User: What shape does this take?
Amino acid sequence: MLHNKSFVKKTRAGRVMKQVREHYLRDDIFCGAPFCKVCDTSSARLSESPSTILVLDTNVVLHQIDLLENLAIDDVVVLSIVLEEVKNKNLSVYNRIRAICSNSKRNFFVFSNEYHRDTYIKEMSGETKNDRNDRAIRVATQWYQNHLGSGVKVLLITNDKENKRKANDEGIHAETVETYVKSLDRPDLLDLLVRPSEDIDMEEVEDLRPSKRKVIYIEHKPMSEITSGLHRGIYHQGKLRVNRYNPFEAYVGSESIGDEIIIYGRSNMNRAFDGDIVAVELLPQDQWQEEKSLSIACGDEDEDEDVHLAPNSADDAPRTIPQQGSSGEINAVSSRPSGRIVGIIKRNWHSYCGSLEPMPMPAGSGGIVHALFVSKDRRFPKIRIQTRQLENLLDKRIVVAVDSWDRQSRYPSGHYVRTIGEIGDRDTESEVVLIENDINSRPFSSQVLACLPPLPWSVSSEDLSNPIRQDLRNLRVFSVDPPGCKDIDDALHCTALPNGNFEVGVHIADVTNFVHPGTPLDDEAAQRGTSVYLVERRIDMLPKPLTEDICSLRSDVERLAFSVIWEMTPEADVVSSRYTKSIIKSSAAMSYVEAQARMDDSRLMDPLTTDLRNMNSLAKKMRLRRIERGALTLASAEVKFQIDTETHDPLDIGMYQIREANQMVEEFMLAANVSVAQQILKSFPLCSLLRRHPTPTKEMLEPLLRTAAAIGLHLDVSTSKAMADSLDHAVGDDPYFNKLIRILATRCMSQAVYFCSGELSPPEYHHYGLAAPLYTHFTSPIRRYADVIVHRLLAASLGIFKLPPIFQDRGQLTSISDNLNYRHRNAQMAGRASVELHTLIYFRKRPTDTEARIVKIRSNGFFVFVPKYGIEGPVYLTTRSEKGGGEWYIDEQQQKIKKMDGSLSYSILQSVQIHMEVVEPQPNRPKLQLSLI
Amino acid sequence: MEYVSPEGLRLDGRRPMEMRQIRAEIGAVSKADGSAVFEMGNTKVIAAVYGPRQVQNKSQQMNDQALVRCEYSMANFSTGDRMRKPKGDRRSTEISLVIRQTMEASILTHLMPHSQIDIFVQVLQADGGTRSACINAATLALADAGIPMRDLVTSCSAGYLNSTPLLDLNYVEDSAGGADVTLGILPKLDKVTLLQMDSKLPIDILENVMQLAIEGCKAVANYIREILLENTKQLEFRRGV
Assistant: This one.
């Protein structure tokens, strides 16, 4: 049956056009009930004999998605009109409901009511779109009831009063979510419910006196006004990013003024969350505030700076605002525009991890209690929730979702989603770290595991006879990795050639031989993006059999590899290079310590040791050349834990030691990556996946230069070469000084990112840190998905395999590289958070005195960096109560903080003795405190 | 964007392998020697054929075969927004050429030397797949004019969106930016006379998409044959045979 839909639509240019679309109505859309006599039941999803079938209204799906994800809700028909409305309103909820619908364990059926001959309805004159859709839902419900007969109760779940009334009038069973959930007799589900806004008594937690019921935030402007404001240039649109270290300060990157707008304080932020797309109005220039970050924490609430790991790059570090005219000009008005948020264009609400604020148990347990939830991530405000199980939740880490934020409420209201575990428990806290960083740690699904080759796997004769695979089993290949490494993805060999040159090979696990494009395994790996290394566990990108056995280049077993083989002169000049798939048999899997010991032990003269020494001498030459080109030797304060094998508690922490053997392996990996980058870019100039490291801007290096100037050190940052040289010359009176400067320098730079070569122009491909014009990741396909892609590109460039179709779609490749960057960053954050967590556990039992360096001066104290443990945190000179007592003043130019009477002064980079101890200011909230001795 | 829902329905409610509704009518322009209207969903095309007749421009006359000319145009009202389209722009010149070459391949031109056949096609309403609709309309009109042909050329488009081959793209699917294959075949001879594609496709996928388009062409051919048969029966009836 054919039917034409006609509607008017506004085009992008602003013209109103009539659109006519065909709309085919079908009679082959089935009801999805397996017991139905009329319909084809091959695609049925509902259970065999349900007592009730639920039909959901759009508002139920939009607001109660957490409830729907609970297994207790089942036998649900999701109408296509509902899906369409949900998709238009909230894409993330749409993805979640789609995931439920496609989950074979849930009995959710999508009924395409809009294309069914009997359930499609035409808009009546005078009927709004909304009313029409509500009617469509009712018609579909009615159809289901008639179709399935009286044996099954078809229940419409709606929270729309009008819709419910009309449904009842038409003789359809309809209930609200509350009444339905209550009828299930499952009190735990009630907490998952989102209460409709009119039912919430806002002030119950804050204050019950009506006089205090006042409007806290200004009203958001209506969408039409925002659009016209954006047009006229009085509002600016952008994504809100809240400062990780100071939740009262946020930034909106605005294209229209080409600068970041700073937003101070919750009232200016006007209920916006981190990640929301907002409309901002600039404040008059005289209200632009001078930077507040001069004191360690803005104390309008009881939140303050925690001790955390020393940041590794500019992206992690707290943002500092470059000071204009810091010398001389007093009373300078900041030139950075400040603004306030007038409207929120798109919300970025999701669920948050944290715990309830401690509160006394109210009398008469069992009733509904209002509680405040504190997110672990400090960028988010407290969230008010209702719960019936307060006594259970008080000492737990829980997940909470946000529902609304009313103008009269200081905090947004939300609802409980689930419990993770007890606060302070290591497993719980690790889980929190994973959830906060959006890391999927679920076991691999059966579809993914089905893609694995049968175990036990070994190299087959087919592989051996494959002409594209070269047999390199006769070579003396070995691998050098951290101790206890199970996912060995790289191995090396070095053979002296008769002509005096060396043949050097880098062999990388041939993951793409097992992970084929388009399979569930590949999709899962692409989604995970990278393996995540926490202190006590590893979350793999690929299933364990692949990671630890089939792909891992272990010693004395035959393995498939992808090899890069160079011929090099003794001066480490590359004569020729080639790439091939291969079969290797590693003769030794050494740890760095072992390899180093072999090289150092002059008595050992066996062939393997000779190979190692040859490689090392080549690596040293390559390294030297790289440094001459201007590669930066950056430093990070990486620490290593020794973990108790039984309890998994940290036993000791120390700096990560870097040996020559590490540098040797690193050098050859870099060379392989560069070499492969050149090869793939040559073949696929538009769709190669490369990695770039942007040159830091002047502003980014500003804090480093200021610090350096204060101690009388001149750094030339004009080029990476100049920077590398001046870093080399920065030698202070103590051995750690140079490393400290390097750590500070590293911190000023942004991180390297993946990108698709078609998106940028060749000069932008540059990798600043390595001083390489081209770079990519090729050497760790077991733990990074980027390498898997590069393997496929390389194979295609050699003509071994066809390029998978996704490479033809530049947009898709870009979205993959964006995802990789996101996952990579999250994995790093999770790793750091895990180290922080273990640091806390470690110091819980061991209060320590140690040496620290001052890295940042603030008006009421300073930040210190503890080299031994790689952590950074505030030391307060004044106590909180006598805030800004005026005893101390800052010498901005010399970066010093002095006592008024001149008796004491601390300057930047100075070494101080501090005491570290874990304190618990509030129950269940342990934190590490640093204090001067 | 989602062009095929997980339930396997396209935006307009069709399944991936389904064509739009087709409708044809013979004899829409009585002055012409042969004419037809062809509709594929909301795409509506009219074709008129004159000839074989005397060659208008003597210099173009060929002694061994007939001259085939084709003119394609789009009515100003064919799309929603009224736009004055200059005659002879690049796009319509190209489509004229494509239609001419496709039709020439099936017309037995050697039987009609010193003569000329004019094919005029005009798009009355455009909703994707105009090229295919024009060829189908032209075939019908040629048959109506009684011009000897090897076979009925039929055409249909197919595309590839959301990793699914789709038959007979409408305007929305056409402008999605995916590959769009227009195919013309001689169904009885099983020969391809036209193959055009926008954008790129890996070769194995192209084969699938093409196979789908061939199915589509054959379905169109069956329908056209039915229409012609019915038309002939009516003519027979009118003659009183």
Chain A has 24 helices and 38 strands. The first helix of chain A runs from residue 58 to 63. The two ends of chain A are 85 Å apart (CA to CA). The longest strand of chain A covers residues 574-591.
